[in-house]
Design brief:
The structure is a homodimer.
Chain A (H helix, E strand, L loop, with lengths): L2 H13 L19 H16 L2 H13 L7 H16 L4 E9 L2 E2 L3 E7 L3 E3 L1 E3 L11 E8 L2 H6 L9 E4 L11 H18 L4 E5 L25 E4 L1 H13 L4 E6 L2 E2 L5 E10 L4 E11 L9 H19 L7 E8 L7 H9 L7 E6 L7 E7 L5 H11 L5 E2 L12 H5 L4 E6 L4 H4 L12 H20 L6
Parallel strand pairs in A: 6-7, 7-8, 8-9, 13-14, 13-15, 16-17
Antiparallel strand pairs in A: 1-12, 2-11, 3-4, 3-10, 5-9, 6-10, 12-14, 16-18
Helix pairs in contact in A: 1-6, 2-13, 3-8, 8-13
Chain lengths: ~475, ~475
């Protein structure tokens, strides 16, 4: 999950209130679905409850491909994997659309406290960071409790120092702590460099207490010196804080050897598969996830989960006796982690078609149980959303009274371009224990939750594709 | 925690039944403690509830020393640290007793699946393992579900193979899964080598799903080829199993570069501190822990926890207006992890004094809440144990009806030499998530639980040292 969209997404979640399901009785209208379609919705639920297809897809992707950072060997393999799987699963059309960018290679990360008390620390380079050179660098720490404190430091006050930001991410069902913590990761290096620092080290943006540091994208700014940037695992950040409590002069050695060849343009691709609509094939119900991952772990939660859900949901709909009226388009975006490159390219490639995107939803929020749905649709479509909510309520999903949702991650760009959107919110309590770490592996996928989520997206897609509702 | 004693300890725990606290009313006898002593027991509890001394000691040891494998720089530092701290805490006598052994250095560990689907795996060398050489070795996997299945393989059937044992340790409050899993770690390499294998790889003896592999001691046998031995983290063992499900021919690359210089005799030491008895100074109430740790993490749970508890418990007793009647001896054993070397040396050094060890208890079982106490004393001492249990019951400790306990870890050797013993059993559910891994760090110490445990050991030591009871 990439930074900007997460922030926006979480903001929406955080301001949502408890659903007023009693309101539903006041919204009397003709049902959107026919009795036969309702029967098919039931049939879909039953089928998915018995199927482990979405799990098998995630198992296959993580076992046979593994991680898949933009431009890497795994990235290429995952594109082939997705095309073949979609074809085998009975999609009517499957194609790829090229996405270009750079291939950042992680290299090595080493950090150790030199004095007062030598200790090896677990560190990881932030995504996109420059290196320290093979020899590494050693400097005293300048400690700040958060990004605001760093911003408040006098200009040029940090010459030659390694800035350490020790802010700890809050653990919360909505994942709201991410918004408050991720600024240090994305923007900390620029601020630190502007004040003369030679490197940035942050406490991981993560809620676990494993010695597994969290990576994620960081940014430089034109005209500001690029300094190396890394994160420490939570226990290692604790160690540094505890030594700083004893004395202000703590000396740290840092070595990062990432590499990007600016002359090489890496190629990736959005992978797109469709179940073609029987009545209005040009009208698109878009469901998506991102196919890329960070180069740590196997990208099982982020976002193998979404990939498996969307492919399985569309497959189960394709297995019904007839095609839905509208087209269901599964978009597996490239290069989300490194800056929504796939989504940006999709916006270019499908500019003229954007008006045909009837409604869309992405999944990029790990493996927690979905408990809430929020719409972002035209007012006239609200009764239809209320009807959809009736089908999802037995799965534990409450309808938020708000109607300001954007879709998650990549698809937030489509939302902003006017696509009506749904946002399904999970229990995000555990997600940031594993997010962007080596621990993002298959065992973190909770199979009952995966079935719930797959069912929800299948019912949503079926409902939207078979209704004549204008969601704008 | 070392293997053999753990196994014995857990066996005792596993066969214990629910305590029959109602029995206590039948065991009427004159109280062991005077009213003044009872008041001092209360005072001790109150003091410890307000003190964070045991936590501060663990924080100091882990922050200022860190890990401390037999023979390492950390080992030396920890001995100095313990002597100074005991002196500062008001112990009447503090001294060290030399312990000799070898210094095994871990080096590097790399493992990757070469085919069918290349994946990097997280591995760690088992303690004492030989290396693969710098070039590493590549071989096909021979997969066994447990040690028994390996034992059942035909002789010479594994020529040139890397044996992989995928047995998963059961998670249980008593830690009983350890006994069933640890045999593969300790003895697997010998069995595999006898059948021609070139290396051993096991699923970590651990109950977590972090990509953090668990180390621990392994053994070779005179006359059997020494082969390299490593463990994989649980998610990495899953990966290997999932590839083996697809095809039997899975090729693994393994590189381990540990090193032991057989010519160098490493020196460590047991660190001993006493609160000298006022009436019977030669009678010893022994409380202990081990000072060494594995060379991963900072040895906070294993066994910084025990070190902090014992030092704090003795200190709080030393702060009372008068010395206890008997001597309280805190023994911080050297080199427990690599084979109870400190305990073995203690048995040699204190052979003639063994009869003066009135009773003893060690702590080497992590940071869970203590819920049970089991005695291993003479029958005549049972009423006194019942009285002790009355003081500990408000802390959540039930008295086991069994009377067959040995002390934990190092002190099990003293128990076997006839020392009456107590064994306090904690909730061990989480211990093996972190045991022998990089994740054994300060944040895993639960402070309320630490206070409970410190209080229990202080009350036990005070009670035993102030009673005239013969526990034999």
């Amino acid at each position: 999950m990439f930074k900007n969209t997460r922030k926006r997404f979480i903001k929406n979640l955080a301001t949502s209130a408890v659903v007023l399901s009693s309101c539903m009785s006041f919204l009397v209208s003709a049902d959107v679905l026919t009795q036969q379609q309702k029967n098919e919705m039931n049939s879909l639920s039953t089928t998915i409850a018995k199927s482990d297809l979405s799990y098998q897809l995630i198992e296959s992707l993580t076992t046979e491909v593994g991680h898949r950072l933009m431009g890497s060997e795994g990235d290429k393999k995952s594109i082939e994997w997705a095309v073949k799987k979609m074809q085998a699963l009975g999609f009517d059309k499957v194609w790829t659309e090229d996405v270009h960018g750079t291939f950042w290679q992680r290299g090595e990360a080493k950090a150790k406290i030199i004095s007062p008390f030598p200790q090896d620390l677990v560190a990881i380079a932030l995504g996109g960071s420059v290196g320290t050179g093979e020899q590494g660098l050693t400097a005293n720490i300048a400690h700040f409790e958060n990004l605001a404190a760093l911003k408040a430091a006098p200009d040029d006050s940090l010459a030659g120092k390694i800035v350490f930001i020790s802010h700890r991410m809050e653990k919360h069902i909505t994942g709201r702590g991410y918004g408050g913590a991720v600024g240090a990761r994305v923007g900390g290096a620029v601020i630190a460099a502007q004040k003369g620092a030679s490197a940035l080290v942050i406490r991981s943006v993560g809620t676990d207490n494993n010695r597994t540091a969290h990576t994620g994208i960081m940014r430089y700014k034109e005209g500001v010196v690029k300094i190396p940037a890394a994160s420490l695992s939570n226990p290692d950040a604790d160690m540094l804080v505890n030594q700083l409590k004893r004395q202000a002069n703590v000396s740290l050695y840092l070595k990062l050897t990432p590499h990007t060849d600016p002359k090489v343009i890496a190629k990736s691709a959005n992978v797109i598969g469709e179940i073609t609509g029987s009545e209005s094939p040009n009208e698109i119900v878009a469901i998506g996830a991102h196919l890329d991952s960070w180069d740590v772990g196997t990208g099982a939660m982020d976002d193998g989960m979404g990939v498996g859900m969307m492919m399985a949901a569309a497959h189960h709909i394709a297995q019904l006796p007839q095609r839905p009226k509208r087209t269901i388009r599964v978009i597996l975006f490239a290069a989300e982690e490194v800056g929504l490159l796939g989504a940006k390219q999709y916006m270019v490639d499908h500019k003229d078609e954007m008006k045909n995107h009837i409604i869309g939803a992405e999944w990029d929020f790990g493996t927690g149980q979905i408990y809430k749905m929020t719409s972002g649709v035209g007012k006239n479509a609200l009764p239809a959303i209320t009807e959809l909510a009736k089908y999802l309520q037995p799965l534990g999903v409450e309808l938020s009274p708000e109607n300001n949702a954007v879709a998650q991650s990549d698809m937030s760009m489509l939302s902003e371009a006017g696509m009506p959107s749904m946002n399904f919110a999970p229990d995000g309590t555990l997600y940031f224990d594993y997010h962007h770490t080596e621990n993002d592996t298959l065992d973190k996928i909770d199979q009952p939750t995966l079935k719930q989520a797959t069912t929800i997206y299948a019912l949503f897609a079926y409902f939207a594709a078979n209704s004549g509702v204008n969601f704008r």
